[in-house]
Amino acid sequence: MKTKAGNEYVVFGSDAYIYMKDRKGNTISTPCIIDECFLYLVQTKRLCVDFTGNRQYVVYKDGKNIKYLSHLIYGIHKHTIDHIDGDTFNNRINNLRDASMTIQNLNKPSTKGFSFYNGKYYSYLGINGKLIKSKGYSTVKEAMAFRFFVADRLCLTLNNTKNTMRYLTLEQLKAVIDDVKKKTNDLVNDFNTEK
């Protein structure tokens, strides 16, 4: 099937898989996924892929302006929208959220936020202009757990660290949690007084 704007799509279950072209007119092999109930929003929009930095985003042209599909689906155009699973082609409503750039940067899969120095792994997060740095750990999994627990304690969502907890011993896990509590008490108090 085709949209009025010419994008081919397939509906499977409650999802619509939309095939797009790049700016040169070549068909992209990876489809964009949206909820079928939002298909009416893209019927007249010619979707294509645009590069922003080192990432690809699904966009459409609105007059002279290029707009992100995620903003159209989410219904917000003046804020930043985060793809929770990190896949910018997954534009299902349950994968999108209104999020600041700080939260979006925490959600990116990367090695940023970690360092290795003098045989120890360190984790750090910059939140609201404050740097939270872990103590030195003997494994990268402990440093990743620190990062996850700090974000969790501050009610932020990180994408790629939950699975690392199952590789830690109980002693390692307790040490990480103690370190998180020491390093975030001031921030938690700051967050509570802001509300």
What shape does the CA trace take?
elongated
Portion in beta strands: 25-35%
Low-confidence stretches: none
Work out the radius of gyration.
20 Å
* Largest sheet geometry: 3 strands, antiparallel
Task: Give the count of helical stretches.
Answer: 5
Secondary-structure class: alpha+beta
The overall average pLDDT, rounded, is 78
Helix content: 25-40%
Give the number of DSSP strands: 11
Number of separate structural domains:
2
Sequence of strands across the biggest β-sheet? 1-2-3
Distance between the ends:
49 Å
Along the chain, the helix and strand elements come as EEEHEEEHEEHEEEHH
In short:
The chain is of the alpha+beta class and 195 residues long. The protein has helices at 39-42, 69-74, 101-107, 140-153, 170-194, and strands at 8-12, 15-19, 32-35, 47-52, 55-62, 65-68, 81-83, 96-98, 114-117, 120-127, 130-133.
